Amino acid sequence: MNDLRILTLHHDMPDVKSYTTILFERILPILKSKKKVHITWLVHKNEKIEKKEKISNDITILDIHDFDNAVQVIQKVKPNLVYVMPGLNAPDYALVLAAKYFGIPVIGGEIGIEFCTKNMKIQFLKSLITQFFQKSISSHNKEKPQLMGKGRFFIYKNIFLLKTQIAIKQNKLKIIKEFFWLLFMYVSRSRNIRFNSKFSVDLHFLDGEIMINQLLDAGFKKSSLIVTGNPIYDTIFQEMQEIKDESKYSKKNRVLLVTSNVFGFEHNWVKIKKDHMIKKVISEIKKHNKSSKHNKPIELSIKIHPSRESLEEYRNLIHKIDPSIMIYQKESILELLKETDVVISTSSGTAMVYGLLLKKPLIIHDCLELDHDELLERELVVECKELSNIIPSIEKAISFNPPTKNIDEFFKDILLKLDGKSAERISDAIVNLLDNNIQQSN
After folding, report:
1. Does position 125 have pLDDT exceeding 70, yes or no?
2. Which of 118, 215, 427, 433 has the most Cβ atoms closer than 10 angstroms to its Cβ?
3. Domains of the chain (ranges, CATH numbers)
């Protein structure tokens, strides 16, 4: 097979950073060195996108609103490989069903370890209800918010799945049973969702060895699991030797506060907690900078989620207190960390792992009262229990050296190898899967 036609989904345009977009940034150059590759992005937003169809010889962007079901998507794109995020998202699941119907190999990623957990079923249910009836603001017509915009799109996505099931002639009784099962799983927000073998595909790329036994116990086939490491960290391995620690010579301690998106949704309870943390941190730093007793002033900047948080809301919150604070959203977290002396967050997550790799001092203030936080439990970060102690925590973090054994065990469990070759291993696995599929069909 000389030509590789990949079909994948994304919740936004491909220029919005996510695990999926970064994955393809890493693997496409390697795949293109071996095959002619064309990738089609099926974008599923609650509103139609402006820019679509073929934008280059090797990239096409399609809008889910132009299709009734995933079968139509497959018939239009004619892919020989489909990539999804295994789980409850209806368009992903619909595409898996359609691809399997046509005998097309499906690969999936990011069934990674949960960095932090909390039993939030009641809060999550409240968030679902709130979001369902929430108005959505169209980027085309901001003056007329759409009533129940998110709720309507949730219904649309599940009708898309239903029409896919009908198109592949799935048994009606099975469709009904599956509808209620999916609804229950979605509302209950069970921790076992990601590990349910119903969502298994032909090949899963795992970040670390710690995931294998959990997935085997859940019923996944051993042949479908391959430990590759996480490609979103590859660039750091290539650059971290070149980064020099200049904090000793800096006239300021540059602090980056990262607003992690822990639960995949922004319930009002979570927002209140995070807003309080941000305001308190700003207040304590302002008091510190006004004091004549400190050695170095602190320069604070804030990085919010690239797509799930509102830049305007954070500007309204933060700039009322201090308009000089920089707020970043779309910018590369890696580039920001290079210019940072200390990182603060509410919990473990990708940004904190980046910081650990770059040997940055890390602070977690667990304002969300999590049941489990990976970096805290492994003693790899400084914990600030009371925000009134954030300045002493910053000073403590700068001189804090996590035990080398803890760091080594963390990376072995979570990221397999510190060699920057995760994308290469994934690319090789894809080529092998396609070659084996051709041999079996002959």
Report:
1. no
2. 427
3. 3-229+418-441 (3.40.50.2000), 235-415 (3.40.50.2000)
